[in-house]
Amino acid sequence: MICPRSIAAVALATIFLTAAAWAHDETKYPDWSGQWLRAGGIQWDPTKPIGRGQQAPLTPEYQAIFEASLADQAAGGPGNDARYSCFPVGMPRLMSVIFPMEFIFSPRITYILFENNMPRRIYTDGRTWPNDPEPTFAGYSIGQWIDADGDGRYDALEVETRHMKGPRTLEGSGLPLHKDNQTMVKERIFLDKTNPDILHDEITTIDHALTRPWTVTKKFRRERNPTWFENDCSEDNHHVAIGKENYFLSADGYLMPAKRGQAPPDLKYFNRSKY
Amino acid sequence: MQRQLVMLASSAFLATSGAVLAHHSFAMFDQENPIELEGSVQEFKFTSPHTFIILTVKQEDGTTQAWSLEGAAPSALVRDGWSSKTLKAGDELKLTIEPLRSGAPGGAWSVSKTKFKDGRPIMVSQ
């Protein structure tokens, strides 16, 4: 007969072992606590102006798509940028961090929480790539913590992201990524060596819309005593996407044109004799 | 429809704050040709993703037109010292806005180009 005390001992041991598996040595991780705000503008490459000034290494086909987007925006349209209608921006544009982010470390996953977007999960448990997962806008990220200086404490997180869905652009100008969604993103995230309240993300985008891998470095500054806000795009968005057109809500909630000479939406389903 | 406004030709008023603060393209607003508006606040919508000032503007013929003016996100305004109580219905304002390219009564407003009609700046706690 099994002694009840033995059962209890086994149960307690199981609980403690499980807890130990989840607890991790926090001294091994860098201090990335607090709120991180972008230290530059909203453009993709922070060192260059938005739009054509980015001098993006686009293929001729995608340069033409970009030019068409810019022309549409100049006329008041959205171009390729669907974010005006709360469409997800996805990776790598998430890392422009238009609104602040924070990092949460757990033994197997590093989370990046954004004020106005779905979170990223970066799996750091040594897993291999899944076979044909469902794509997501944020993609599937596998990361590895690096102790570059051998002092026993991690100082960089290297990440690779695949399996994204689209359409996605790199910035509000509508700078396009390829419709085949075969993008691969590689990142190296690390604190500034001279200022612990500055974080760098060196991001390399590999995509068939580009003639070569494109590397930019984003910089973020830390706010150690942050205030967090609720920022849900769907709360009161006044931009309305109907088909390929964007409209703007009036003060009294009706559709207004955004472009000069814009036609109203097609009302073909509003046939009163049928419904 | 007649609008009480002044076209500003000076390039010094080229507005960049709307584009800087937006999570998306603000290209539907004409940043090269800003206009001045005067009116009273019908409603100050302190909502995501963007705040809105609904401004009642008197027309030359005595009628009024409600303008839908989009601004920065609430979280961005709070970091500049604003709150949902900074503006209230009835406040008389003078603004330089970037109007919708279509000419419809809408546009983008910014903190730096918004003040009370009598010239006082919008006072906010720091």
Q: In terms of topology, how is this protein built?
A:
The complex is a heterodimer of chains A (275) and B (126).
Chain A: H1 4-22, E1 35-38, H2 60-74, E2 101-105, E3 109-114, E4 120-123, E5 140-146, E6 156-162, E7 184-191, E8 198-206, E9 214-223, E10 239-242, E11 245-249, E12 255-257
Parallel strand pairs in A: 4-5
Antiparallel strand pairs in A: 1-9, 2-3, 3-4, 5-6, 6-7, 7-8, 8-9, 10-11, 11-12
Chain B: H1 17-21, E1 35-45, E2 52-58, E3 64-70, H2 74-79, E4 92-99, E5 106-108, E6 114-116
Parallel strand pairs in B: 3-5
Antiparallel strand pairs in B: 1-2, 1-4, 2-3, 4-5, 4-6
Percent range of helical residues of chain B: under 10%
The whole-angstrom Rg of chain A is 23 Å
SSE sequence of chain B, one letter per element: HEEEHEEE
| Largest interface (CB < 8 Å) | A-B, 45 and 34 residues
- The main sheet of chain A orders its strands as 1-9-8-7-6-5-4-3-2
The overall number of domains of chain B is 1
| Count of β-strands of chain A | 12
Text of the CATH class of chain B: Mainly Beta
Describe this structure in words.
The complex is a heterodimer of chains A (275) and B (126). Chain A has 2 helices and 12 strands; from the N terminus they run αβαβββββββββββ. Chain A folds into 2 domains: 27-223, no CATH class; 238-275, no CATH class. Chain A has helices at residues 4-22, 60-74; strands at residues 35-38, 101-105, 109-114, 120-123, 140-146, 156-162, 184-191, 198-206, 214-223, 239-242, 245-249, 255-257. In chain A, the strands form 2 sheets. A 9-stranded mixed beta sheet of chain A has the order 1-9-8-7-6-5-4-3-2, with no helix packed on it. In chain A, strands 10-11-12 form a 3-stranded antiparallel beta sheet, with no helix packed on it. Helices cover 12% and strands 26% of the residues of chain A. In chain A, a hairpin with a 2-residue loop joins strand 10 and strand 11 (245-249). Chain A has 275 residues and is α+β, with helices and mostly antiparallel strands. Chain B has one domain (11-116): Nucleic acid-binding proteins (OB fold (Dihydrolipoamide Acetyltransferase, E2P), Beta Barrel), CATH 2.40.50.140. Chain B is mainly β. In chain B, strands 1-2-3-5-4 form a 5-stranded mixed beta barrel. In chain B, a hairpin with a 5-residue loop joins strand 2 (52-58) and strand 3 (64-70). Chain B has helices at 17-21, 74-79; strands at 35-45, 52-58, 64-70, 92-99, 106-108, 114-116. At the A-B interface, strand 11 of A face strand 3 and helix 2 of B.
